[in-house]
Specification:
Keywords: Glycosyltransferase, Metal-binding, Queuosine biosynthesis, Transferase, tRNA processing, Zinc
Domain tRNA-guanine(15) transglycosylase-like: 49-402
Shape: globular
Pathway: tRNA modification; tRNA-queuosine biosynthesis
Radius of gyration: 21 Å
GO cellular component, one term: cytosol
InterPro entries: ArchSynthase1/Queuine_TRR (IPR050076), TGT (IPR004803), TGT-like_sf (IPR036511), tRNA_ribo_trans-like (IPR002616)
Distance between the termini: 30 Å
Bound molecules: zinc ion
Structural class: alpha/beta
Number of helices: 16
Helix content: 40-55%
Strand content: 15-25%
Length: 410
């Protein structure tokens, strides 16, 4: 237990001192940025199936396992980019579907690209638009060519195809580009999942061809196949034959439940090349993230910490805390006494409760900051634990703290 306490202390210190956590940063790093012109991935340590590593890009390193905050419309809602960085994020995610409709990829390119436009100079991963066009757009028509659809904003007509998705992500200046794929709505029959996966693999080849040769930029393939093991294997084989800079496990976190998701993650990451980053798209809650890292996932993204921050939900070591609850209204204690974020350092539960109830903007700002800080602390804790070969103890402690629940009301 002494080692676990040490790991927690180290992780907390890393949170306090941002990236100055001694002994973690690569030795070649200068002024917080390692100079490289290439995209590469190095596994630095393993613990069971979990890996600790670093993705090097010309825009800076990404420490893995990494959590990527979601900046849907060229902003992580309620946060300035410097604040997002201060939580410990090395990379953000941007949404192709939203940005192509408003303000448009061509406009962003004309203004110098997405990094300059949103004032974030570190790596950005963009999704392909495939998932959101199927969940948000109306009048969709899916063909071999791609998807025709009407904008959910103004009804205007658009087309997304592998070629158009690659063009948009290039216009945005994305560092990590995702293949255009199709994710079938669940529940679906095995035949439907198989046909959809086969289409996604043909689109993966077209994405690869359209992406071309772009040094310093990466293209990730996306494994599909639902919860069917042999379809996951077929998909992985097709992607490996094409060859990508990284591989995503797609088609999960779409309502199948944690048990089914972990069931797939028990075998799916092992089907993907060992020497490339593995990205689980759209995940998730803290316990989903911990379980995914244990199963060999290196990257994740989710709107949960920022979205729940705007609805008054705080995530802490002790689980989820509803700050709208009246039991906080006279409570002078911080949301989490061990957290070093501005919301916990400078404000009481009573204040957070008040500004959330009063719909004050600072309520969203403070809780989003806290939640993103908590997520990044969790990632740092796992990176330190994997490096020390102590992930199992870290995970046991993580579950024990959550089982205790939130502190008792005063
Ligand atoms: Zn906090």
């Amino acid at each position: 237990m002494r080692l676990v306490a040490h790991l927690y202390r180290e992780a907390g210190r890393a949170g306090q001192e941002g990236l100055a956590f001694a002994g973690f940063l690569p030795k070649r790093r200068k002024k917080g940025r390692r100079m490289t012109t290439k995209f590469s991935f190095d596994v630095l340590a393993r613990d069971g199936r979990a890996r600790k590593g670093v993705i090097s890009t010309p825009r800076g390193d990404i420490r893995t396992p990494a959590f990527m905050p979601v900046g849907t419309a060229a902003t992580v809602k309620a946060m300035l980019p410097d604040s997002v960085r201060a939580t410990g994020a090395d990379i953000l995610l941007g949404n192709t579907y939203h940005l192509m409709l408003r303000p448009t990829a061509e406009r962003i390119a004309g203004l110098g690209g997405l990094h300059k436009f949103m004032n974030w100079d570190r790596p950005i991963l963009t999704d392909s638009g495939g998932f959101q066009v199927m969940s948000l757009a109306s009048l969709r028509k899916l063909t071999e060519e791609g998807v025709r659809f009407s904008s959910h904003i103004d009804g205007s007509k658009h087309m997304l195809s592998p070629e158009r998705s690659m063009e948009i992500q290039k216009l945005l200046g994305s560092d990590i580009v995702m293949c255009f794929d199709e994710c079938p709505a669940l529940p679906a029959t095995d035949a439907q999942v198989a046909a959809s996966m086969a289409l996604s693999m043909r689109w993966a080849q077209r994405s690869r061809d359209a992406f071309g040769d772009r040094p310093g930029h990466a293209l990730f393939g996306i494994q599909q196949g639902g919860v069917t093991q042999h379809l996951r294997e077929e998909s992985a084989a097709a992607l490996r034959a094409i060859g990508f800079d990284g591989y995503a496990v797609g088609g999960l976190a779409v309502g199948e439940g944690q048990e089914a998701m972990f069931g797939v993650l028990d075998y799916a990451p092992g089907m993907l090349p060992e020497d490339k980053p593995r990205y689980l798209m759209g995940v998730g809650k803290p316990d989903d993230i911990v379980g995914a890292v244990e199963r060999g996932i290196d990257m994740m993204d989710c709107v949960l910490p920022s979205r729940s921050g705007r609805t008054g939900q705080g995530w802490t070591r002790h689980g989820q805390v509803n700050m709208r609850n009246a039991r906080h209204k006279d409570d002078p204690r911080p949301l989490d006494a061990a957290c070093t974020c501005p919301a916990c350092r400078n404000y009481s539960r009573a204040y957070l409760h008040h500004v959330i109830k009063a719909d004050e903007i600072i309520g969203s700002m403070l809780l989003t900051w806290h939640n993103l800080h908590y997520y990044q602390d969790l990632m740092e804790g796992m990176r330190v634990a994997i490096g020390a070969g102590a992930l199992a103890a870290f995970v046991a402690n993580f579950h024990a703290a959550r089982a205790e629940g939130d502190i008792e009301p005063l």
